[in-house]
Amino acid sequence: MLLIECSNMKKYFGDRLILDIEDLKIYSEDRIGIIGVNGAGKTTLINILTQKLEADEGWIKLHGRYAYISQLEAPDNTSISSEMASKFGIPSAWHENLSGGEKTRFKLAQSLDNNSIMLFADEPTSNVDMEGIELLEQSFGEYNGALILISHDRSFLDKLCNKILEIENGRIKIYHGNYSGYQAKKIQEKERVEFEYQQYVKEKKRLEEVISDTKEKVRRIKKAPKRMGNSEARLHKMGDQKAKATLDRAVKNIAARIEHLEVKEKPKKAERIQLDIADSNRLYSKIVLEGRKISKVFSNKTIFRDADFTIYNGTKTALIGPNGCGKSTLIKMIMKQDNAVKIAQGARIGYFSQDMYILKENMTIIENVMETSGSAENFARTLLARLLFKREDIYKKVNMLSGGERVKVSLAKILLQDINFLILDEPTNYMDITSLEAIEEALKDYDRTLLFVSHDRRFVDSVADHIMTIEDYKINMFQGNYQEYLSRRNKPLDNQKQEIEKRVFVLQNRLSEIVGKLSLPSKNDDIIALDKEYYGVLEELKKLKENL
User: Fold this and answer.
1) pLDDT digits (tens, 9 = 90+) for 181-194
2) What is the pLDDT of residues 85-138, one digit of tens each?
3) In the chain, is it the N or the C terminus that has fewer CB atoms within a 10 Å radius of its CB?
4) DSSP summary character for residue 56
5) What are the two backbone dihedrals, phi and then psi, of residue 89, each rounded to the nearest 5 degrees?
6) Are strands 118-122 and 163-168 parallel, antiparallel or unpaired?
7) DSSP H helical segments within 221-326, as ranges?
8) Average per-residue pLDDT in the chain?
9) Residues 23, 27, 28: CA angle, nearest 5 degrees
10) Residues 232, 206: contact at Cβ < 8 Å?
């Protein structure tokens, strides 16, 4: 069923054309992920489609009721049913003291409770922990209607979307499939563009060589010999002139063919970010950071109780866990060099905090990153270009940047410092996918120690080789990537389930024996003891089955 129609729509911000869409149709079975760099017009597009914002040209038709989850706006209604509140683990009434994750859950619960046939969501996973993201995935997956969402969470887009809508230079292009399918198609497109360019260069070169050879033939046409008679010389000259004219025409024809070749621009290859770190700052201690018997209580709430951890030199450790478990507390204890935390001598820490205090508002982007850079300016420019700050952009002042742009500049400034231990607190929030993947690529190649907090599962799995979790006031360390961690975490549950099933089988057999003896007791059977055992076995079976 057709739910949204859009034709010849244009939207300007000042003189800048933000969106230029000839045709867009959205159907009830569509589950669309909208992607594009920061500032491409993703939120603007959703606001126009929901008629919260008017287009400057063209028309939009909306057929049916919709729900909208926005990170910036408060919900339309400030209360939800007790059933939805229970399902999403939140209060039934909205208030501003809710955490970022709780606010997102509240908006989701309200949206799913209004019988809409379209659901729009703008960065719904921001400030939501992994458990919350999985709940969002499940809820969106069960939603019976069209889903249109903006997200930089690639795993989220993979799980939920059957179409990816890319916005680039104001234009849209729709790719069928999820985000991984989109990535594969983009690679094919790049390969095709590269092939067509090489074919263009090859053909142009061939034609230019033909022209060069033909001109050489013209140059070699000889004049009439001196001994030749006048009549013979005249005939010779006429033949030469005819041959020369033929060759000149050939040159002109080939030159025209070159002019009519469809020009193919040379594809731009993204430069790989290789963090060029001097060996002079290398740390040789085996252990970079360790905590012993860490205890912390806030307002009668226990965060840590005799917790221990060790981070080894050269490892990349992801600190994960639900909101409120103590991740930020632990990072702050490390940065303040708490007595329970020991940092290796010679460790130079680069710290990314979400408040981005390291940026100076009245300085330009390039001035900010070069202020503490241990690298040359051309390398800094390469890094900034990969983060989509190109040419004149690097001269923008920080106070003119958006939140997402500030995150990228702050990260660039830290990555360029003369450090040997990186600590990053939620570096991927508010970052577009292109920039996120550039940072991801740089961190994968980073050959010093890294500790980072993130709820982005794809980012964690791609970068981390150790997983650090906080559970039951303790800090647990796992050697391996995120997928290996999940596999290992689920194995004890599987083993436990198998043990329970074995125990249930044994008890059921024993129950049958007891029932048989109670039905036809022998002289040696103690009826009272058997009866007592019967009820004991029944109770144990009941408890075991509850855990299956």
Assistant:
1) 999 999 898 888 88
2) 888 888 888 887 777 777 777 888 888 777 789 999 998 887 788 888 888 899
3) C
4) S
5) 65, 45
6) unpaired
7) 230-260
8) 84
9) 160
10) no
CB 69 within 8 A of CB 108: yes
- What tens digit of pLDDT does each residue of 233-284 get? 454 455 566 777 787 788 788 888 888 888 777 777 655 555 555 455 678 8
Q: 2-177 and 284-480: same fold? A: yes
- Of 3.40.50.300, 3.40.50.620, 1.10.10.10, 3.30.70.100, which CATH number belongs to 284-480? 3.40.50.300
Q: Please report the pLDDT score of residue 540 as a whole number.
A: 82
Instruction: Answer whether 163's CB lies under 8 Å from 135's CB.
Output: no
What is the full DSSP assignment across 210-226?
HHHHHHHHHHHPPPPPT
3-state secondary structure of 441: helix
Distance CA 414, CA 424 (A): 9
Q: What is the pLDDT of residues 312-359, one digit of tens each?
A: 999 999 999 888 888 989 999 999 999 999 999 889 898 988 777 788
More confident residue, 63 or 245: 63
Distance separating alpha carbons of residues 129 and 108, to the nearest angstrom? 15
Distance CA 178, CA 167 (A): 16
Strands of the sheet with 118-122, listed across from one edge: 66-69, 118-122, 146-150, 31-35, 163-168, 171-176
Q: How many CA atoms lie within 13 A of 531 on its CB side?
A: 5
Q: Quick one: pLDDT at residue 250?
A: 80
* Three-class DSSP category at 391: helix
Residue 306 sits at φ, ψ, to 5 deg, of 50, 45
CA 377 from chain centre, in angstroms, equals 28
Q: Please name which of 462, 414, 420, 437 lies closest in space to residue 318, comparing C-alpha atoms.
A: 462
Q: Give the Cα separation of 117 and 67 in Å (integer).
A: 8
Domain boundaries, the chain: 2-177, 187-260, 284-480, 487-546
Tell me the C-alpha to C-alpha distance, in Å, between residue 186 and each of 39, 175, 431: 21, 9, 20
Helices (H), 339-402: 365-371, 377-386
Token pair for residue 324?
Answer: 């409120």
- Residue 470 in this model has a pLDDT that exceeds 80: yes
3-state SS of 355-367 is: CCCCCCCCCEHHH
Whether the predicted pLDDT of 27 surpasses 50: yes
Determine the Cα–Cα distance for residues 240 and 234; give it in Å rounded to an integer: 10
Fold of 2-177: Rossmann fold (3.40.50)
- Residue 272 is predicted with a pLDDT of 55
Residue showing tokens 């890319």: 166
For helices 130-142 and 100-112, the axis angle rounded to 10 degrees is: 10
